[in-house]
Write a structure and sequence with these properties.
By secondary structure, the protein is of the alpha/beta class. The protein has a domain of 147 residues: TIM Barrel. Helices cover 24% and strands 20% of the residues. It has an 8-stranded mixed barrel with strand order 1-2-3-4-5-6-7-8, surrounded by 4 helices. Helix 3 crosses helix 4. The longest helix has 23 residues. The two termini are 23 Å apart. The N terminus is likely disordered.
């Protein structure tokens, strides 16, 4: 199972566009879908799928899935979304974009100053730049963007740095596009990476791994800061794996 390999979804409703920065746009998923990334090569899906989620990175931030364009094409008329791998490491700063370096100065968490503030702003710029990278390697216009946040990638033991990174990437996506943004993770991985009570605005919903089905009682792991409930809705459940024509891929279920 990919927890670190990328997912795919099916969507039946249209995108509700919002002005950049106006908040979380919405998108709904239903039916069965799949996700594919570099391990699947030039994968073509079996019949009966409603949506696909294609990974644009090669398992780590600032890398490229060389098969993304073909996988996008092979998904045909299915509703198509994209995801990208995320993480925090000081080494990633070498890939910072000029735009994100400049914008990071506007990230001023309450109580942070001096070296602490500089470190948080640097993390914000890394996350922002990861989003910029993903936007630069798109194979097509997605119905939704997903940020893959999992412990298999590099993250700090300092959750404040991880929070700044995630805030930077979500902010960049929601202020430069009108496409809905979601988070792929599990409750345990999310808590390990971000700590507790981390609120990130602009997230439309969660894509949760390890769910066997969708349920009206299932709540997401992302706190969005809105009115009750604070949890973002689970839009997609990653339910397991399947094999088609010799290729193993992840299976997904739209949760509305």
């Amino acid at each position: 199972m990919r927890i670190g390999a990328v997912a795919a979804l099916v969507a039946t409703a249209g995108v509700v566009p919002l002005a950049p920065g106006a908040g979380a746009a919405t998108y709904t998923y239903s039916g069965s879908g799949y996700d594919a990334s570099y391990p699947q090569g030039n994968f073509s899906p079996p019949s009966g799928m409603s949506f696909a989620i294609i990974g644009v990175t090669h398992g780590r931030p600032f890398t490229t899935n060389q098969y993304a364009a073909r996988q996008w094409e092979n998904a045909g008329t299915l509703s198509k979304s994209l995801y990208f791998n995320t993480g925090y490491a000081l080494a990633y700063a070498k890939s910072d974009t000029a735009n994100c370096k400049a914008s990071a100065a506007g990230y001023t968490p309450t109580g942070a100053s001096g070296h602490t503030l500089s470190a948080l702003q640097a993390a914000w710029a890394i996350g922002c730049s990861e989003a910029d990278w993903a936007l630069s390697v798109v194979p097509g216009s997605p119905a939704m963007w997903w940020a893959d946040v999992e412990t298999g990638n590099s993250w700090s033991t300092n959750t404040a740095l991880n929070q700044a990174t995630i805030t930077g990437m979500v902010t960049e996506l929601t202020t430069t596009t009108t496409i809905p943004v979601g988070i792929y993770s599990t409750p345990s991985m999310w808590a390990s990476i971000t700590g507790t009570d981390f609120v990130v605005s602009g997230v439309s919903g969660d894509w949760q791994a390890g769910l066997s089905t969708c349920s009206s009682t299932t709540t997401g792991f992302t706190l969005t800061g809105g009115s009750s409930p604070l949890d973002a809705p689970v839009l997609v459940a990653q339910t397991g794996t399947a094999t088609y024509q010799g290729t193993t891929y992840d299976t997904d279920l739209g949760c509305g």
